[in-house]
Amino acid sequence: xxxxxxxxxxxxxxxxxxxxxxxxxxxxxxxxxxxxxxxxxxxxxxxxxxxxxxxxxxxxxxxxxxxxxxxxxxxxxxxxxxxxxxxxxxxxxxxxxxxxxxxxxxxxxxxxxxxxxxxxxxxxxxxxxxxxxxxxxxxxxxxxxxxxxxxxxxxxxxxxxxxxxxxxxxxxxxxxxxxxxxxxxxxxxxxxxxxxxxxxxxxxxxxxxxxxxxxxxxxxxxxxxxxxxxxxxxxxxxxxxxxxxxxxxxxxxxxxxxxxxxxxxxxxxxxxxxxxxxxxxxxxxxxxxxxxxxxxxxxxxxxxxxxxxxxxxxxxxxxxxxxxxxxxxxxxxxxxxxxxxxxxxxxxxxxxxxxxxxxxxxxxxxxxxxxxxxxxxxxxxxxxxxxxxxxxxxxxxxxxxxxxxxxxxxxxxxxxxxxxxxxxxxxxxxxxxxxxxxxxxxxxxxxxxxxxxxxxxxxxxxxxxxxxxxxxxxxxxxxxxxxxxxxxxxxxxxxxxxxxxxxxxxxxxxxxxxxxxxxxxxxxxxxxxxxxxxxxxxxxxxxxxxxxxxxxxxxxxxxxxxxxxxxxxxxxxxxxxxxxxxxxxxxxxxxxxxxxxxxxxxxxxxxxxxxxxxxxxxxxxxxxxxxxxxxxxxxxxxxxxxxxxxxxxxxxxxxxxxxxxxxxxxxxxxxxxxxxxxxxxxxxxxxxxxxxxxxxxxxxxxxxxxxxxxxxxxxxxxxxx
Amino acid sequence: xxxxxxxxxxxxxxxxxxxxxxxxxxxxxxxxxxxxxxxxxxxxxxxxxxxxxxxxxxxxxxxxxxxxxxxxxxxxxxxxxxxxxxxxxxxxxxxxxxxxxxxxxxxxxxxxxxxxxxxxxxxxxxxxxxxxxxxxxxxxxxxxxxxxxxxxxxxxxxxxxxxxxxxxxxxxxxxxxxxxxxxxxxxxxxxxxxxxxxxxxxxxxxxxxxxxxxxxxxxxxxxxxxxxxxxxxxxxxxxxxxxxxxxxxxxxxxxxxxxxxxxxxxxxxxxxxxxxxxxxxxxxxxxxxxxxxxxxxxxxxxxxxxxxxxxxxxxxxxxxxxxxxxxxxxxxxxxxxxxxxxxxxxxxxxxxxxxxxxxxxxxxxxxxxxxxxxxxxxxxxxxxxxxxxxxxxxxxxxxxxxxxxxxxxxxxxxxxxxxxxxxxxxxxxxxxxxxxxxxxxxxxxxxxxxxxxxxxxxxxxxxxxxxxxxxxxxxxxxxxxxxxxxxxxxxxxxxxxxxx
Lengths: 721, 500
Fold this sequence. Notes:
The structure holds two protein chains of two kinds. Chain A has 38 helices and no strands.
């Protein structure tokens, strides 16, 4: 049972450990962000996970498509529910209603927009020109959607009328081969109407797909269709009305070079397009295409590619960005110097050498390379002259701060980054800059300033760590005073209350707790809830109490234990209070929310010995079992002959035994403080000093049990990974 | 129950004892009238002990059991325990589903109960036991079982066998129609009191295992270099034969408890026994990079697999320890039947599945019957573009274990050999199981044209990935082969790749 209990009490601490195990390293934190050591290194601008690229240290303003917003699933449900209504409206020939529904779907989602657009255009056209063929068309469409291929013959039967281009387009979508699809799309593109442009684009794409099919890489298959595809895309590029398809058209046209083995030309064209990509998804796709072409460069093509890139600052910038951020070097050890840097720096210098003017953006990138190479004088050299605004200015500012930091000028680094958000409101480096500011302030011992930054970042573990562990109660008190009107001021006061409570400053503690209205306080501290599993019929060791009541009780019990005739009994009562209320009595759930186990994984790249001291002090203060043990041992020292000492020693032993396997912190505690052996030795004291006591027999029995458990625990941990 | 249970019933006759006897008589009436009338069945029936709770055996499980010769489930229905003042039955079985199952209710006793057994009153104990039997019988039959009898599983000291026999006599007296049996320790059989015990019930079931797991063999330096120096048995066949011979001499009906289970032990670097290993399973041991497969041996009806702990990355705890897994699976059943004769009724310690599905399931799957290798090269021409002239290749070799033969693999029996020309490895260092060679001699990676990588096991469904860096242009050939315990070498797939 004891072992099981030990597992349960980790409930409050275990959730985050589990989260870390399941999802890898924590990134939205500075104190517990294990892989990040050098915060002066600017984070990568783009995350491309399906490439298995190395992740930057945060992704807040890099790739929003990965951040699922809170309403996402709600909207998805709405869109899915609307589809049934759409088909109902279609069946009842309420074409305008159907058009309105699909329009709404287009507003709600970015998924399947081609389908919704087609439905919208078809039902709008039907509402303007209702004919019999629409019913046929929609029925075939629905069948086709339910079972591909089942609606084809009905769609083919629509030979004339306003539904004809839609039927052709749907046939193109269903065609098993791109050649066949091309014929349908091409015919549809020739019929004026809302589908004509989309059909023209699809005709061009299907022609190119047929001309240059892509297996492992594209190959040339049909020259006539290649000519057709090229002509169609050229016409699209010349059509201002088709502007939204221009990037895509340019991308498709590069495939010709690739398929015909002109990898240097293809690589240059893809590289040039990376900057023009209208959104992240298309940028990722273009980078992937570039990478494929780049890998095939050999011999003269490699040198021709290099020559072209060297002579064009935009290309050189795109190339350096690709090589720096999208060619992983050592994922296992991201803090190891990137071995690619010397070669890349040499290439960057060769760009200058051929007379290409370095734009500010390119200069900032070269400065970044120099920073990676730990050549800070070169970093400064390249940064000089880069204007404070414009392309590359944000990177330059970040790197300026980094070089100040490297020179030990932390205040200058902080000033450099102070207005970063205002100066570069759209920069991808904003979040990285805020993290960096926080770490710089931590290193300056400006914990209050760091907390300000971390609150803005909403880094929950860091906020909890600073308020509950790292800052002294006095620092927290000052923070409470200086942030009296902060939206989270009540949380700060509650947190201060817990700090005072753990330090036995009960009146101060009660004052802080009671400054928050009772109902709000109980809600914030999650009074009554339990983070641990609890068996029916077992005492609730792990239920969160109202801390005000705890403070009052402890004040009374400590007062009695301090003096008086029955001091030994009063001390034992105090120890028992700690022992029986146990794990969550001093736990600040408002801050940790079940995540305190992160304390076991502090990033040693950020912390100093002061952090280790703070964690140690926090652990001793926080763990009621330890507090119970301490009081019991004090009692035993003060009243060695008192009969209650037998009980105290026994209780100290059981508390010690539980702590021995309590959590990673206590498992690694010095064996003289907490261990199975220490627990057993306390039991030995019970039966040797008090042989006639009722507890002596059990003490003798469990001494052996504890030692066996200790050996078992050692064996159990021995080969665990 | 009160203090009376702690007094020997013979010591005095008083109102308390009388009250107990009256209650036993009433209980006997209740027991006899509870559900279908129990008829004495003096013959043991082949079966399996079922210790789990809840008891959840569906009709198809019963049929499946019959197919492997199991007619009866010997189900732990409760545990006799000492609660500080009296002996009580606790941890009652929960009867979830038992339709069609023929069941003996088995009551075991924990250490506390055994410690107080000598002081306990047999009448009180019998009353408690029969009360428990009655209530469990109702529940079991409610779930669809047919309750056949009561078996006690009390590992009492041999000197207390007369007292144990007396307990059976009291139970028999109060419930004459109830078939009774008990499990038995091997030492009991040679005791002169064993006949008395055996005659107090219908049949006995000595457990022919764990009798040899005394300290004796483990006190020796049993392990050296991860290999067992002496034979260590989970069960000893020759000893079993002598026990059965003795049972036949006594003339008592009996079944035998057959070992069908696994055990794992930990040995110190000195070779001394350190205790039972509960930290990792056999499959985990195969996967654990700190454990190196050291030995497999088949000792008659028993298999043994050992792993030697090698220094780990982060801590030295456990370096040099040996973990030994031992199993007696279906081979054990066959061996026992062969040695003891087919007429002996077995009761299995646990479900007697076929050998590959018992202990050695993981190990047999690790035999390298069907390897599949694939190789992927990722070229990086940045050196050609940036002026260093280096064309680099990142090679990822993946070896997958497919379901295949059950051949055992010897240590380091998975061998991957790479030969190349025109290209050059660029790894500055390599793990210890990598051997870079040229013309058979070990050389630095940069001078090598051959690499041999070895490994000891790969479980079915698992894969092994190796990443290597080369530069230049040329070809590379990859060959995988396995070497079984029988020394036979099997060649697997071959890949050849052009790197240019």
